[in-house]
Specification:
The complex is a heterodimer of chains A (about 230) and B (about 425).
Chain A (H helix, E strand, L loop, with lengths): L3 E12 L2 E13 L4 E5 L6 H8 L7 E6 L2 E2 L5 H11 E4 L11 H12 L4 H14 L15 H13 L5 E5 L7 H18 L2 E5 L3 H6 L2 E6 L2 E7 L5
Parallel strand pairs in A: 3-8, 3-9, 6-7, 7-8
Antiparallel strand pairs in A: 1-2, 1-4, 4-5, 9-10
Helix pairs in contact in A: 3-4, 3-5, 5-6
Chain B lengths: L1 H13 L1 H41 L2 E5 L17 H13 L3 E15 L4 E9 L1 H7 L7 E4 L10 E5 H6 L7 E7 L5 E12 L10 E4 H8 L8 E6 L5 H13 L10 E5 H4 L2 H37 L1 H9 L4 H37 L2 E4 L2 E5 L6 H27 L3 H6 L2
Parallel strand pairs in B: 3-8, 5-7
Antiparallel strand pairs in B: 1-9, 1-10, 2-3, 2-6, 2-9, 4-7, 5-8, 6-7, 11-12
The chains are: A alpha/beta (about 230), B alpha+beta (about 425).
């Protein structure tokens, strides 16, 4: 059983008369609860692939199934709903909303995307805040906390709706070594605690060595698939 | 919806100075419009009140063709007893009519025994005239002490005539008039009062008792030039006018021509055009308000969207639907409008109260010391506020639409 399944997945960008094939017929499957990393040099198609898995960018060829749903044909609105339901995001720049507190940033998907009742919201936020170790910072604004803490909040926001899948694009790129290690450890703990699948796009060896499956991309094609933590 | 409003409010508060300036601009626009409506409305209703309550009434009824030749005050176009009775019957049956007064209008020669000039007179039944024209008494700048305002043998003369002919209250004057047959008759009168003039037709006419006019013109029966009608509520004017036109318009003479004509004060007074000009100016001020709101809100919202492209990408990526993103930005425009209009309304009401307590007076034509009493009703405020809010949401629509339609990937890449 797989959570993500790509068959002959393609993405071609057209700019005027120029066509750029960013992803060239990629096949892969990702099992639920995996800790997966896409690696490769810049321009290899990692971010494009992540965007397609995140239903932000539709494929131009092949099929992409997530949680038994063919997401390659979803409309923009359906894509937004699907993301809100099944996918969490962690960004390189944290992307917290500056006018909302830590608590409110984590609460945002429950309020604006899933409309949870207040009591359940409160309970769930407390649980996730405690899990990421930010319970005592709940009323602070993003501008009042460190980069590592911001990324903890971003992880909490990604996990708050209990998604099947969290996509993290270079999540440690803006963090120092020690903080990056803590964030990776945190995400692994979250995977163990909530059973969430984590998929990374990264250059960071610290992330790669913790991944259980590593897909190596080159010029939009899948060159290698490694499992079992070969970089560890 | 409450959550969208809450987040929109937080977004507005992140740029406090810009939000403050925009709401201040909207508030200033609202204050300008509401104050203009209140002050011009006070001026308008005061002037309309002066005209309708001291000389014209709200509606006038004449024999057909009288108004067209009113400058010559034609005695051969008066209403006879039968026609007058018909009009009286209709007016007494109409509940919207408060009172009416019968007038015989005539031109005469006015002599103070050393000089002679012309005078236009309204011959009236004083009780009816003062009841239908409640402000007429206030136009008397001088009056004979200890007597009724107008009794047989007395005349009220316009102030300009009194000054020009050097006549004062208590003086004896002679009025000489020509009747319908061309016969001339004269009669001495005592000046009982001096009437201040007001703008418009009849505003510089004198007044005598109807019985004296009959004697002067040697009229044996009943003849009336016009019937001035006062309504209980001026808002009933269109309905009552339509009713009178319907009931009197069907009455024809032997030639099949209509006997009566019905005119509202609006058709008879040139001040109506000034009132329309005031309404037009109010419209222009409203258009300016719309422009201020449209430009300021649109500018602020375009800036807001541009500055938050990355944030829009984030909320879209985590699953916020385009509809909710649209609602979020529309809510910001809506909140700006609510705060701006609320502030503007409060300032306007305080300013109106201050103007009233300052008791400002002004002059208009011959009238002096008219008290400005600005007032504004909920019925006048509500459409302005609704318009500002609607325009604000409309002005936010384009930037909000742009935000909602933004490609999340491009938005996330935006620096």
């Amino acid at each position: 059983m797989s959570l993500v399944e790509a068959k002959r997945l393609e993405k071609t960008y057209v700019s005027g008369e120029v066509q750029v094939q960013a992803i060239r017929g990629v096949d892969f499957t990702i099992a639920p609860g995996s800790f997966v990393s896409f690696v490769g040099p810049s321009g290899s198609g990692k971010s494009t692939l992540l965007n397609m898995i995140g239903c932000l960018d539709p494929p131009t060829g092949g099929t992409l199934s997530i949680a038994d749903t063919d997401v390659s044909t979803l409309s923009r609105k359906e894509g937004a709903r699907f993301r809100g339901e099944h996918i969490g995001f962690v960004f390189q720049d944290f992307n917290l909303i500056p006018v909302l507190t830590v608590y409110e940033n984590i609460e945002y998907p429950l309020l604006m995307v899933q409309s949870w009742p207040q009591a359940e919201r409160k309970k769930r936020i407390s649980q996730v805040l405690a899990a990421v170790g930010m319970a005592d910072q709940a009323q602070k604004y993003p501008g009042q906390i460190s980069g590592g803490q911001k990324q903890r909040v971003a992880v909490a926001r990604a996990l708050i709706t209990n998604p099947k899948l969290v996509l993290a694009d270079e999540p440690t790129a803006n963090l120092d070594r020690e903080t990056a290690n803590r964030i990776i450890a945190l995400m692994k703990e979250m995977r163990d605690e909530f059973g969430t699948t984590f998929i990374f796009s990264t250059h960071d060896p610290k992330v790669v060595k913790n991944a259980e499956t590593i897909f190596t991309l080159e010029d939009g094609a899948l060159k290698q698939t490694d499992t079992g933590g070969i970089y560890a | 919806m409450r959550n969208i409003i809450k987040i929109a409010a937080k977004n507005l508060l992140r740029y406090k100075r810009r939000t403050l300036l925009t709401t201040a601009l909207i508030a200033l626009g609202v204050v300008s419009v509401l104050l203009f409506i209140a002050v011009s409305g006070s001026f308008k209703s005061l002037m309309i009140g002066q005209i309708t309550d001291s000389v014209m009434g709200h509606v006038q009824i004449h024999r057909k063709g009288y108004v067209a030749s009113i400058d010559s005050l034609p005695l051969n176009r008066n209403l006879n007893a039968k026609q007058m009775a018909k009009v009286e019957e209709i007016l007494r049956a109409e509940p919207a009519v408060e009172s009416f007064t019968l007038r015989l209008r005539l031109g005469a020669m006015f002599s103070n025994f050393t000089e002679t000039t012309n005078i236009r007179l309204n011959a009236v039944v004083p009780e009816d005239e003062f009841r239908a024209m409640p402000l007429l008494a206030s136009r008397l700048s001088e009056k004979k002490a200890g007597e009724e305002l107008l009794v047989p043998g007395g005349v009220l003369i316009p102030a300009l005539l009194a000054k020009g002919m050097q006549v004062t209250v208590g003086d004896t004057v002679v009025l000489v008039a020509t009747n319908r047959d061309g016969s001339v008759n004269g009669k001495p009168f005592t000046v009982h009062g001096v009437l201040d003039g007001i703008s418009g037709p009849g505003g510089r006419d004198g007044a005598i008792h109807l019985d004296d006019a009959k004697e002067l013109l040697r009229i044996s029966g009943v003849e009336i030039s016009e019937i001035a009608v006062r309504l209980k509520d001026i808002d009933d004017l269109p309905a009552v006018t339509a009713l009178l036109e319907q009931q009197l318009g069907g009455l024809t003479n032997k030639e099949g021509q209509p006997v009566f004509e019905v005119h509202t004060w609006e058709k008879l007074s040139p001040f109506y055009n000034i009132a329309k000009m005031i309404d037009l100016m109010t419209l222009f001020i409203k258009v300016m308000l719309v422009a201020i709101v449209l430009v300021s809100i649109m500018n602020v919202m375009i800036m807001a969207v541009y500055e938050r492209i990355g944030e829009i990408g984030t909320i879209a990526a985590i699953g916020t639907t385009p509809g909710k993103i649209l609602a979020l930005f529309l809510a910001e425009g809506f909140l700006l409008a609510i705060v701006g209009t609320a502030t503007g309304t409060v300032i306007s009401l305080l300013a109106i109260a201050a103007l009233n307590s300052a008791a400002i007076t002004f002059n208009f034509g011959m009238q002096t010391g008219l008290l400005l009493q600005p007032a504004i009703s909920v019925g006048q405020i509500a459409p302005i506020l609704a318009m500002v809010i609607f325009i604000s949401v409309l002005a936010s629509l384009q930037p909000a639409w742009k935000a909602a339609k933004m490609d999340p990937i491009a938005a996330l890449r935006h620096v």
